[in-house]
Design a protein that fits this description.
Strand content: 25-35%
Shape: elongated
Helix content: 25-40%
Oligomer: single chain
Radius of gyration: 24 Å
Number of helices: 8
Largest sheet: 9 strands, antiparallel
Structural class: alpha+beta
Distance between the termini: 21 Å
Order of helices and strands: EEHEEEEEHEEEHEHEEEHEHEHEEEH
């Protein structure tokens, strides 16, 4: 939600702009038509740390790799196992991408590739993730293996569970990685397709690629291997690439395109948007810094955020807006653990009222 102030209006000088589908692609912000609002100052109420004012954010591109294949029947002597991964924290792929949290797709592919290479496993089904901007936290796959290799596969599952907990014990809640017998699927992925897709997922970059050289504690470029779906003769991989540098964003998306193209997959880039470039001389920034210090005795932090904010899209549709993004303290947005720190809500509200009462002439 954003509040815009129009100094040309004689009555009711506030406009409220509420956009839809922020979590799944900023659809509402992209659909905003020039002239819809008259405001000159944009207060974007969509940041996650009280006491911080955001004046810039990363841009992004949706990367989608897909491939249709003709399913084949499994070996009738094989058995089928459902493999499930749970216990990861997940989180926001912009705000928490730098915290070293595990990605369910990247953990699962380590197991799958070893099971294929060593124990003659065949991939039948893979379903992980539901939103591009959420780090996937659970995974489910179905594989088939020769009946004689069942014990070794179960040992590999146990080994991976111990390994993942050792690697991520300081970051994640206890990880559970389990296998159970399931009904034999009617079809599996052809071997060559399976191998190429698994190798591409294994090789795909995930996580932080680079920090901003001039601001080394802020992520500049990252990717989130968000969604993998293999079922019904179709492979689909969805990634969100982010960067505050258009040049690095192009580099990252090109590398992802190359990775999946080598697996014979069709790669489509969509939803591209540039970052929101900070304006340190913003009049509303100066006003809000003074108002915050007057109210609470200390200056707010002024930052650039790696997550995507509506400001960069709205600002492109309505040139010349003076923009700030701020809000109460939230944690793990876009995940089942999303929560608000209640004591921050009153401070945020009081600060918003003070800002509106003292907003400058633009």
């Amino acid at each position: 939600m954003a509040v815009l102030e129009d100094k040309s209006l004689k009555h009711d000088p506030l406009e409220a702009l509420i956009t839809t589908d922020e979590e799944t692609g900023m659809v509402g912000a992209f659909g905003l038509k020039p002239g819809t609002v008259q405001g000159e100052i944009l207060l974007n109420l969509d940041s996650e740390d009280e006491g911080e004012l955001y004046i810039g954010c990363a841009g992004g591109t949706d990367v989608t790799a897909s491939l249709r294949y003709k399913e084949v029947e499994p070996d009738p002597e094989d058995i089928a196992l459902k493999i499930t991964l749970k216990g990861l924290r997940g989180g926001h792929s912009g705000l928490e991408i730098n915290q070293g949290r595990a990605n369910a797709n990247k953990l699962m592919v380590r197991f799958i590739r070893e099971a294929i290479a060593t124990y003659e496993a065949r991939l039948a089904y893979w379903e992980v993730g539901n939103m591009r901007n959420a780090i996937p936290r659970e995974a489910e796959t179905v594989i088939t293996v020769p009946a004689g290799n069942e014990e070794e596969i179960l040992e590999l599952v146990s080994y991976c569970e111990n390994l993942f907990n050792k690697e991520y014990g300081a970051i994640e809640t206890p990880v559970t990685f389990k296998a159970e017998k399931t009904d034999m699927p009617a079809f599996v992925v052809p071997e060559e397709i399976q191998d190429n897709v698994v190798n591409a997922i294994f090789a795909c970059h995930d996580g932080v690629l680079r920090f901003i050289p001039a601001i080394p504690d802020t992520v500049e470029t990252s990717s989130n291997l968000a969604i993998v779906s293999v079922k019904d003769g179709m492979v689909e991989v969805k990634i969100l690439a982010r960067s505050s540098s258009d040049f690095m964003k192009e580099y990252l998306t090109t590398s992802l395109e190359c990775c999946f193209s080598m697996a014979g997959m069709k790669v489509v880039l969509s939803g591209e948007y540039s970052g929101w470039q900070p304006n340190v001389d913003s009049p509303i920034l100066h006003t809000m810094k003074e108002a915050y210090k007057k109210q609470f005795g200390n200056e707010p932090a002024v930052k650039v955020i790696h997550a995507g904010l509506e400001c960069r899209i709205i600002g492109a549709n309505i040139p010349g807006l003076d923009m700030i993004s701020f809000g109460p303290t939230l944690r793990s947005p876009h995940s089942p653990d999303e929560r608000a720190y209640i004591p921050s809500v009153q401070k945020f509200y009081d600060f918003l009222v003070e800002t509106l009462e003292n907003s400058p002439e633009k």
